[in-house]
Structure prediction request, 601 residues.
Amino acid sequence: MSNKVLMKGNEAIGEAAITAGCRHFFGYPITPQSELPAYLSKHMPKVGGVFLQAESEVAAINMVYGAAAAGARVLTSSSSPGISLKQEGISYLASSELPAVICNVMRAGPGLGTIQPAQADYFQAVKGGGHGDYHNIVLAPESVQEIIDHVRLGFDLSDKYLNPAMILLDGALGQMMEPVDFGDYKPELQEKPWAATGCKGRKMNAITSIHIDPRDMEAHNIKLQEKYSKIRESEQKCEEWMLEDAEIMVVAYGLCARICKSAIRVCREKGIKVGLFRLISLWPFPEKKLDKAIDKVKEVFVVELSAGQMIEDVKLVDNGRKPITFHGRMGGMTPSVEDISDRIELIHDRITQKVG
Amino acid sequence: MKVVYERPESLLDVPFTYCPGCTHGIIHRMVADTLDDLGIRERTIGVSPVGCSVFAYEFFNCDMVAAAHGRAPAVATGIKRVHPDKIVFTYQGDGDLAAIGTAEIIHAAARGENITVIFANNVIYGMTGGQMAPTTLIGQKTDTTPYGRSVEANGHPIRVCELLSSLDGVAYLERVSTHDPKHVLKAQKAIKKAFQYQVDGKGFTLIELLSTCPSNWGMNPLDSLKWLEESMLPYYKPGVYKDIG
Ligand SMILES: Cc1ncc(C[n+]2csc(CCOP(=O)(O)OP(=O)(O)O)c2C)c(N)n1
Ligand code: SF4
Prediction:
């Protein structure tokens, strides 16, 4: 039986976290994610959970560190400038191998920027963000329903690999209201024998990220890298949409990918063979499927709400095989469906030699 | 033979790595004795700072979490909100607590987090080689105040107990010293009382312990104790700054 309810993206994050067994949220107010703390401050107490408004994003991520170390499923959220402030704490989480879910409801930057949607924090999210060699698991939902799935998946992957997971979405998706179905998902809560819970009946547990001897620090780094290899091997996620016979492949993620889908439908009606490769996991980058998909098309068209960040990873996979064109809007501006469909038509005309 | 001195169970059987004459060791010992005396070792979670006591997790025989520089009160808040029935303490230096971590300590105190803060004030940054701390005395020479700390350039030292005493969330604040046995005994009592308050759910407690750093003060251990008494005590007056009883 379908059980659809109408919900805003930001609120869906909160309800999804509760259904995933998360009972602790620490955050600091920032637009455009404010509906999430508002939702959780109302609903956490009803399930015996904790909502705490911290004095800063720095404090919030370190409360997350403490709660994760204590064995809890824990969530924090912010938007771009606040996520920048959290980076030291995220690096500590990664090094101490603590699970936590961090939502970045991106806005436009750099600096204070503006509250309109952007995807300009891609580098920060997928390349590490803080100091040291580490990676977050990064998921990019395209709809409110997918926000729910990704928040749950984020908690599961984070626990499975003992690694922070980030849900990367933009402000427009956070504000968007859509019908969603929470289904009857049951979280798989794991035993955490390493957690700081009081050492009754066992040896004391210590959670730290310091390895003062460089040989130990290197060994720890090697261990982390082996974990990242495993994640790369097993957790790449993408959607291949109308790609079977496509000559042009659009590559996009998040809400931007939905605009591309509409543009692709317009182009398909005109007989243009175009499809979409949508990234679902930004890290690990879905390189295996992208690699094969590139072989089958004539040209790749990357669309982002940035000056061109994700395109660098597409280029690495393409490795010069097929031409890549790019369209990006910045500063909180979003391309229209026609912007994208016009560009796809131009590419189509060029590769079918309609224009010289 | 009668045993007159035993390692508390709450300390692991490893030698301290602190410099000779450093009072971090005494403070560790007093905290460990308290955990033993109150029988709370197995339900205690400690949070170590960044500073010379970053390795506190190698010495205390209870669960330990190492925080980022200055963030121990936030980390302790996260732990305590997950395990309200556990005893949570932070161990912090004066750079950690009164400079980079000023926001975290003030807000943990204001929220009345039911945690205990063990604050070792040695008026200098020990771990990084003796730079000026927010607590460095006027005229005191450090690595970054080679001509002595001046009011014009660096402003005034921060008195943490006085600063926090106005906050309603605070249950108990006391400043004690470690420079002689009489003061150490008082310090021991204060630490025990702070943990007892936490056990009783009374709210935020902080014990400031005036501490030495012979290595970076450039003195031998005995002169350090004397300097503490003569130079630090007049500015950092021992006493109870708040006690809700
Ligand atoms: C973010 C960050 N900034 C700076 C440092 C360098 N650092 C390490 S310990 C320390 C000062 C410690 O002094 P204090 O808290 O007084 O403790 P002590 O070593 O004297 O016991 C500093 C600045 C760091 N580790 N992290
Ligand atoms: S540097 Fe100073 S504070 Fe650090 S261990 Fe040595 S004496 Fe103690």
In short: The first helix of chain B runs from residue 24 to 38. Chain B has nine helices and seven strands.
